[in-house]
Structures are given as C-alpha cells and as structure tokens.
Amino acid sequence: MEQFPEQASTNWIMATFIYTLGAVAVLLVVAGLVFIDKGLVRRRNVLDTTIQKIGAAMVGGLGTLLIGYPIWQWQFNQAFGVPQPFWQAVQDWWLGGAFTTTASRHIDPAALPEADVLQIFLVFFVTFTMATMALIHTGVVERIKPLPLYVMSFVVGAVLSPLVGYLCWGSLSPLTLRGTHDFDGIFPLYITAGTFVLVLAWRVGPRLGAFRPHPSGARPASHNAAFVGVGVLLILFALPFITIGSGYIVPDVGFFGISFTESGLGIVIVNLFASILGGAVVGLVLAHLRREPSWALLGPIAGVVMGGTLFDIGTAWACLLVGGLGPLVALGTAALLRKAQIDDPKVVPLALGPGILGALLTGFIEWGTPTGGYIGLEGQYAVGVGEITPWWQLAGVVATMLVAGVPALLMCLFFERFGGLRVDEEAELTGLDAAQWGVSNFADDLDPAAAPASSVIPPSRQAPEGTPTGGGLPV
C-alpha cells in the first residue's frame, strides 16, 4: 500500500496531540457534571443518577461515532466540490468508513490533508456529544426513565448535535458563511442542551414537592452541595484545553477560530479566564446578597457560557463584562422557569439563557467582523466571506432551537404514548437506587424511621410551603 510520509510531519503530530488533549478534556466536563448532580440530588438517588448520566453520555457518544460525524464533514465536501457531498461524507466517515479505518500515512494528502487531525476531531465530536447528553440529563434527574433517556441520547448523538454543528459551527457551515459566529460550541452544546431540557423538563414534570407540598412530605433536597464546587473546578480545569481544540492550528501561520477568524492561542485563553472571573465575582456577590450559595459555585459556568461565542474575536474587557452578565441572566431565566413551574434549576438557567443572550451580544459587539470560509478557497468559500451581525446570530439561535426542540417534543410525545417518560411515584418516593438497583449507598434511606436525628431540619430553618428548595439556582 502506498505511503505518504508528509501525513506524519512533526507539525501535524503536534497538532494531533493538542486536539487529543482537548477531546479527552471534555470527559472532565462529564465528570464535573457527575459531581454536581451527585451533590444536588437526594442521596437515595445518587447511584442511579450517576449510572444514568454516564450511560446517556456513552450512548450519545456511540451515536456520533457510528454515524453522526459525517453530518459535520458534509460542509467541507460541499465547499471542496466533492460529488454527492453528503453521501461521500457518510462513506468516508461512518464507523466503517475509509477515512475512519485507514492509518493516516496511507491516505493521500490530496484527498485528505492532515488526516490524523481530522480523525482525532471525530473523537472530539464524540466527547462533545457525551458532554451534551450529560448536561441534558442534569435537567431531568431523579425522575426520568432510563429507556427514553438512552433512546434520546442516541438520536442527539447520531443526528441532532452534529446537525447543529453542520449549520452553525465550522468555517464552511451554511449559516457561518452568512455571518453566524460561534467559537466554543455554544450552539451545538449549550443552546442545544438547554432547548432539549426545556422541552423535556416541561413534559416529564417537576420532582415531587418541587413547587407545591406533596402528601408524603417529599421534596427535592441536596445530598452534599459542596460537591458542586468539586464539579465546577473539574470543568474549569478542562475548559482551556477544550478552548484550544475549538479552532484551527495552521503551522507557521497561527491559530484561528473554528470559523477561520483571526485569533491567537493566548488571546482565547485570556478571554476565557476573563469570562470565568467576571461570572465568578458577580456570582459571589449574588450569593452573599441572596444568601444562596449556588450562585457562588455556578457563577463561573454562567460566565463561560455567556462569553463563549466571543473568545476568539473579543477583547479581554468585553469578555469580562459579558461574562459578568452571565449569573444575572441565569438568575432571570431561573425566575421565569419557576414562574412557569418547570423544574430545571440548572441547565436552562446556566446554558440556554446565557447562551442565547451571549450569542446575540456577540452580534452587536463584533458587528461587521469577518467570519467563515477556508484558507486557500475563493469566492463564496473565501476566508472572511461572512460578516457577523445580530440577525445572523439570531438565525443561528432559532435554527438550533428548532433542530433540538422539535425532535425533543416528538420523542417526548412518543414515549408518553408508549410506556411513559417518568418513573412511577412509588419509585420516586422510595429512591431510585433501591427501586432500580435494589441497593442503597445509605442504610437509612431504605428505612425512613431509622434516619438520624441530625438529618431533620429544625422548623425554624425550614422553607415556607411551596418555596422551591435550594435557592437561586435551586436544587
């Protein structure tokens, strides 16, 4: 078999290592979400929550590995004039495809330059889907049945998340070429997950006791909210590596955003931390003013989501200020959800609200900035062919919400008709660890009468009836 040693150049090997690090770092986001939910669910649901989250992430990743990645590669085949661009992408990049199963040194650079990098990008997409599904599961913990969750996970991984990526994330995607701009995966990850959760949480209903007293006295209650801090730190540790993976590294030229915007490695990391610190400080202020610790713990995440579309092209000052708005937007989003009695205190407030408003603000802040295209191409695919505008940012938001929201509703209606979305009330009261697995991490969970006296909340510290528990971004 003919060999092409240029595919193994030092430059490409180094780029492959950097993208591998970014792809694997996404798994730390999944781990962080496990810790966050482990801390915020009732302790009798900790085991089942962990299993469901990891299971949903794995099934979603499998969908992307099997068939989802070709949907994203479709845009490149279109731009480079490949006949039957979608079908060829499927043939090349499904799990058994030519490019997926052939070592890079045996792939002609004329057909696929930097083959190792694009093969690793497949893994990047797999882990991205895993994070998306871990986030979606966070919005419906303690009450969704496993089968609907896993089926939805596969559909998200095989079709929905890659389709949003094809439309909005990539230098040659249809909306990017017209002016829609993303950098850190705000559209395919946060807005997609937030929209899906908005529909799913509405259809599956609130946890028992979330908004009104339940006859059993059941209500949502955190197991150990301090775990949230551990989860947030894991996510923050992963973000710089993921951020570097959200762009092009062109040897001897420089670093570009995923839409081939002018940028730099140092710039994106500085902007990332500006958004983190802006969200952290405003979240800390909110936590003390409202006496709701969740804002101090999750404020940095709101800041990152708020500024994610801006990291490659914005200034540090802009990212600091936009990131600082994140907790405030999350606070308003959480209030709207409570008013609508939709029980999702984390994902929609942290991902959907800041994701949408941050994307729209980028349209105003960077109005007219060139975006889209690919190096070496001309005409409608030339670098900088599109210009960022607020209305193209809005078009990306609407497209993403339709791609995620409509299938989410259809799948919910299907499962409501055939088998149901939600576990039965008895299992929810007993605890899903015991109901699903016949075990419990805590002996007293199986016998409420054996609960230690220290676990009882004194009447003077109990919230008024009907008050959502956990405050702020409540649990």
Fold topology:
Elements: H1 10-40, H2 46-79, H3 85-93, H4 98-101, H5 115-138, H6 146-168, H7 186-204, H8 226-244, E1 247-250, E2 254-257, H9 265-290, H10 294-307, H11 316-340, H12 347-365, E3 370-371, E4 386-387, H13 390-417, H14 425-430, H15 432-437
Antiparallel strand pairs: 1-2, 3-4
How is the largest sheet built, in terms of strand order?
1-2
- E-strand count: 4
Low-confidence stretches: 444-472
pLDDT averaged residue by residue: 91
Strand content: under 5%
CATH C-level name: Mainly Alpha
Q: Give the ordered list of helices and strands.
A: HHHHHHHHEEHHHHEEHHH
Backbone shape:
globular
The description of the largest β-sheet is: 2 strands, antiparallel
Pfam families: Ammonium_transp
Family: Belongs to the ammonia transporter channel (TC 1.A.11.2) family.
Protein name: Ammonia channel protein AmtB
GO molecular function, one term: ammonium channel activity
What does this structure look like?
The chain has a single domain (5-429), classed as Ammonium transporter AmtB like domains (Ammonium transporter fold), CATH 1.10.3430. The strands form two sheets. It has a two-stranded antiparallel sheet. It has a two-stranded antiparallel sheet with strand order 3-4. The chain is built from 15 helices and four strands. The model is unreliable at 444-472 (pLDDT under 50). By secondary structure, it is mostly helical. Helices cover 60% and strands 3% of the residues.
